Each structure stands twice: as structure tokens, then as C-alpha cells.
## 1
Amino acid sequence: MNPPVHRLPRAVLDELAAGRGGPDAVDRLRSAQRSKTLLLVRALVLLARESGHPDRAAVEAAYDVLASLRPDERAAALGHPPVAAWAFGTASLLHRGDRSAYPGLLAAVAVAAAVRSGIDADLDVPLAPGAPGHLDLPGLGTVLIPARATRARVRCAGGRAQVRCAGERIEIGDGPPGDRRWLPVPRLRLARDGLPLSLLLDTRTWRHVPGVGDGHRAGGVTDPRRWRHRLDAAWRILVDDHRPVAEEVSGALRALLPIAPPPAGTRSGTFHHAFGSVAMSLPPDGRSAAVTLAHEIQHLKLAALADLFALVEPGPPEFRYAPWRPDPRPLEGLLHGVYAHLGVAGFWRRQRQVTRSRAERHRAEVEFVRWTRAAGDTARVLAERRRLTPVGRRLVDGMVGVLDGWAGEPVTPEAAAEATRLLDAHRARWERAPARVR
């Protein structure tokens, strides 16, 4: 399992700097992320062996099964976003000698891959101590087993598997459940105008990711029907009116993690080491879901780019005002915020051109002006920082160029005035905040 060498042409970097990139950039970033995860898995196998971890034999056997797969089958197994995040966190814990690490999940990953590919495999799967009564097969499903069980034996053949543990036998497969103890992961499949979006609604694998766990899922809406309703509407908006964004989302996103909503509004996020996933609370409508995806795809691209190139040189902490946060942000956080809100401003720029309602057009103009100014002002602050690397500076200069061009586009005086009021109100709240917050 040797990862390839990755290169990013300057033309692709410049497209990314403009907030775009398209399917070509997404494919390049995804390929690099797969190599990163493969290296992390190799590292955790070696660390488990060197540390004498009790699950080392199961981990090594799982690695051999994964190595026997075709490259595309292996990439699908290790590219499942929570698996990638687990690999990073687990390798880090093993490197520190932390005995809470759970490298045994690699055996469950290998089982899921064997079922999908239809190969024969016979694997010992150590169970996670923090999830008694559950055998999670990442991206495939969960087997409900006796809570006293600590290990399971799984035999795979012909796209099916038999789980044996604590005296019970449970048949599973990559399809409709035949046993009530088998809970497949729901998948949302959307398509419009030839462009698909396929997302696994996987909430269970995340409990094995160090630093994430159950708290990030508590209270989230997991009903696939409600998500399908929201995302159907969002996908229609993105494909019809924001096709370049939809193409990136289609190529990049593979998993959705429902999370609990805040007291007001919605929240969303991405995980740096889980390329291809987005976490969000259930949006109130399709447009909110669409702008959230336009926002989060930017974070996803920038996180993957930052794995390929350093964007900010190491140095003493520098915190600056961010027009979208109540707290000051470090330079790396500012960079992410600007890039994400470049995507938000672009969304509203296109939206104001396609909406028919006068009220909706006014709102789109207000949001366009607000986030263009916010991102542009912050990008110019970043441009003055000496700690930007050459790649980081090229990225910031590209964003400044795009945002300056948008700032010169005509808008109604009413929209400009309301955007100014919103920006000034945010700054005033920040200035009034206690010194400890700033």
C-alpha cells in the first residue's frame, strides 16, 4: 500500500485562491487525503506492534486484509471520513503512549471493506470499551451484541458476514437488514440535472474518534426523511443556481454528521482530519442548507490544502478581530474564516442575480455586501502579516483580488446601509465584550 506523490499546479492553487477549484482541485485534494490516511494507518499498525498493544494481532490481520483489496476498494474503506479522523487521533494517542487508544477499530474497517468487496475474510474484532453492546462497522452499520462481549469473530464471504460473539450468531450484509440486530447506516442519495450527491448519515463511527465522541451528536436530528427533505431543496438551489459549488460538493462530501442545534439558529462545522464530512444541525429550510454547504466546502478545501502546504509560519500567538465571531481568532483561524466567507459572499452574489422577490433580492444584496466587506477587510489584515508562507500569501492575495472586485459591484443604497449597520453592530458588541474574551 504505497501512496503516490502529490503535486498541485500553480493554476489549480490560483483557482483555489479565488474560492473555486472545481472537480479537478477536489480530486487532487481527496487523493492527497487518502494518502495521508494510509500513512496514518500504517503508523498506527507499527505503533501498536512496538507498544505491545493487546489488539496488535487483530490490527495486523486487518491491515493484511485491507492490503489485499483493489486500490479503489481500499480507498473507499479508509476514505470514510470518520475513519480518517479516527486514524489521525488513534495514531497520535499511540505515539504518546496513551492506553485509551482503540486501534482495534481497524478490524471493523476491514470487515466492512470485505463485505462491500465480496472477498473472503475471517477476522478477530476487538470491541470498543466505550460502546458496550455494539459492534460498529464504519460506513456499513452496527451489530447489536451482548453487552458483556469484548471481542467478535467475523467471517465474510460473498458480500455477507456472520458475526459470532458471546454465543450468538448474527448475519449481516451490505443491503436491507434480515435481522433486527443489524442496523445498516442510512444513505441519502440525491440527484438533479445529472449531478448526484450521496451522503452516509453515519452517527455511530464518530464515537470512536478521539476528541469527538457522543457529545457532538447528542440531540441531533437523525431521521433520514427530514434530512432528505431539507437537502433535496438545498440541492435544487445549488445545482440550478450555484452549479460550480454543487460540483465541488458532489465530488467532496461523503458523510453527514447531524449535531444538536444551538439555542438560536443553526450550527455547522467540518473536522480537519475528516475530509469529505460535514457536521450540521437540521437547517430550517433548503436555502439555509445550501448556504451552509457553500460555507463548509470552503473549510474542507482549505483544511486539505493546509495538509499539503504550510500557509502560516510558526510564531508567537497573534489574535485579531473576526467579523463573524464573538472572540478573537489566531491567524490560522482568520484564514479559514476569510476563505469560508468568500464562499458565503459568492453564494449571495449569485443568489441576488436569480431571485425574483424584491424582499429576497434585498436580503441577498445585504448578505453579499456584508460578507464581501467582512472577508475583504480581514483578508487585508492577513496580507499585512509577515508570517504568511509563499503559498499562504498567494492564497491571500488571490482572495483579496476577488473580494476587491466584488466590492466594486453596484448595490442599492438601502442594502449597503443595512450591511454597514450589521457590521458596525457586530464590532460594537465585540468592543463591549470583557477584556478576557478579547
Note: Residues 22-51 form the longest helix (30 residues).
## 2
Amino acid sequence: MAKGWPVVLTEGDVVLRPLRRRDARAWLAARASNAAWLEPWEATSPEAVTGPAPTFAEFVRQMSSQARAGTALPLVIQYRGELVGQLTVATIVRGSLCSGSIGYWVSEHVAGRGLAPTAVAMAIDHCFGPVGLHRVEINIRPENAASVRVVAKLGLRDEGLRERYLHIQGSWCDHRTFAITSEEVPDGLLARWRTAGGA
């Protein structure tokens, strides 16, 4: 089994846990009710899609396979027992880089309550602890003000603009890269976030 997987992380009412097949109904309902809220930021593929879209079970199977291989951490965000989002640490690379990138979404009805920064801080601490990474980055479209606020609250370093970095809704879009290394938070990012009054 990969380092730091499987895992359940808890901070108050916020829980991060592995994505499961039995999450299908709640996950699909959350995605459907938040379609307009999430769609502008959703990654797409420039390659033509052939065949049927994968089922939720196939999606979970693929993510779980990546988790066991140590290349991703696919986690559900729960708030007071309700599935309200997802956070995935992806593109985990070992060797001389020891890095990963985080992507996340939360339901609109819980946005602004500190859930996203709390979940991101929990995940980064886990990456710097049991997973053994040195650096984590988050790539955000400059227009995504809500996500930019999340990394600003956590004090991640702005490393600048990556032009036409990811394919989003049919176009290659610029992203800003925010990053942090383990040396910057020797006592943990969640502890720093708590001290700042966030959690």
C-alpha cells in the first residue's frame, strides 16, 4: 500500500476520507446541484472523446488504483456528515522532486465557511507528514476569486502565471501557481491556519 493511504483526516466538523463507490448518489447529486458553480473551472480534454463516459464505479476504481500506486490521494470532503466536495492530491512524483498538486471543489451552499482552506491545510499536512512530500502546488485560474482567496488565507506563495496551462471548457487557460514546501510550515499548515483564526 502507498505511503499515507488509505487515510481519514478530521478537524472539527470537516472530514477528509477516501472516495468510495457507495458515495455515488451523494456525489452525483452534489455535482448536479453545483453544475453552474463548478463548470467554469472544470478541466476538459482537447482530445476527442470516444465511447460512453465512465460510470461512477469506474471513476472510483481508477482513482483508487492511482491511490494504491501512490500517484494520487482522492478524498471526499464531508461537513457535519454531508458530502460537500472533493479534494484530490494528484501528479504525486517521488525522487528528487517529491511533489504533488491539489485540486478541490466544494458545494456552493457551504462556500465561505472556511471548509476549503481547512481541507487543503489538512491535506498538505498529510502530504508533508506520512506521504513524505516536500512541495505541494495548487494551480488556479486568475478569474477564480474564491479559490484564490483560499490560498491567500493559507499563505501559499504565488509563483506566477503559467500561460495556457490547462484545458478548461474547450480552451487553453492561464493559471497562477501557488506553492508551499515543508520547510515553510515546520509546525504544520493547519496549526498556522488555526493561529490565524481560520479553524
Note: The chain has one domain: 9-195.
